[in-house]
Amino acid sequence: MPATREALKHELLSLVAAFNSGDSSPPDFPEIVSAIDTLKALSPIPDPVNHLPSVAGSWTSLYASFGVGHSKGKSHQDDSTLSLQTFKAFPDIPIRVNDIVQEIGIVPNTYNNVVFFETITGSCRGIIIIHGTYEPDAEDPKRFRVIFNGAELRGLNDLDDAALRQALGLPDDYALKRDFKPAKLYSDVVYLDETTRINIGGMGGVYVLERRLDPAISL
Fold first, then answer.
1. How many structural domains does the chain have?
2. Exposed, middle or buried by CB within 10 Å (0-12, 13-18, 19+), for 210?
3. Cα–Cα distances in Å, from 124 out to 25, 32, 80, 82?
4. Residue 135 lies in a domain
5. Is residue 14 part of a domain?
6. DSSP β-ladder status, 206-211 and 78-81
7. Cα(18)–Cα(6) distance, rounded to whole angstroms?
8. Mean pLDDT, 10 residues at a time, over the chain (219 residues)?
9. What is the pLDDT of residue 78?
10. Beta strands, E only, the chain
């Protein structure tokens, strides 16, 4: 089984790499879904809730699809808005998403999403941190109950708060850390090994993630 699992994982990651490079044709979307469906049955850690140290840490999203009706067949790199990425905590300002990182802590039970973005003109780069917490589901060994409750903007490349506000067209006194009405969701970790994790969210999102070697950004 390990050899079969590794071969299937290699196939999935190859499809995702081609997808993100723009070399994929439309049929690759169902091929990725099919590969995920096959691989999740072979997860070496079938009960992630009971193996929190294996889930915890910083993970880069290699692939993110948000269902048939939204972003079908797209990589995580996409044009978006601050509002869409922050549960409407920030205004509807156009941005370009360049990367998504998910960071999970054990003590405290942190569940943060970190979105790397740039302005549409490319004049500045920053990150969005969606702050959240989680509780393992008592009845489902794959499920994490997640509550997101706030969003934060930070500049990159020594961009200070004033310059970030200016680049985004925000008022000089605009708070860059804002709470929002708690969003209660869940995330099923359907595949987990030392370096790869596959999540399926309660709203239909599918994520293929790779463990990062760099220090955590938000923990």
1. 1
2. middle
3. 32, 33, 15, 14
4. yes
5. no
6. unpaired
7. 18
8. 84 87 60 89 95 96 68 60 95 94 96 95 94 96 97 96 96 97 95 96 87 93
9. 78
10. 57-65, 78-81, 94-104, 111-119, 125-136, 143-155, 177-192, 196-201, 206-211
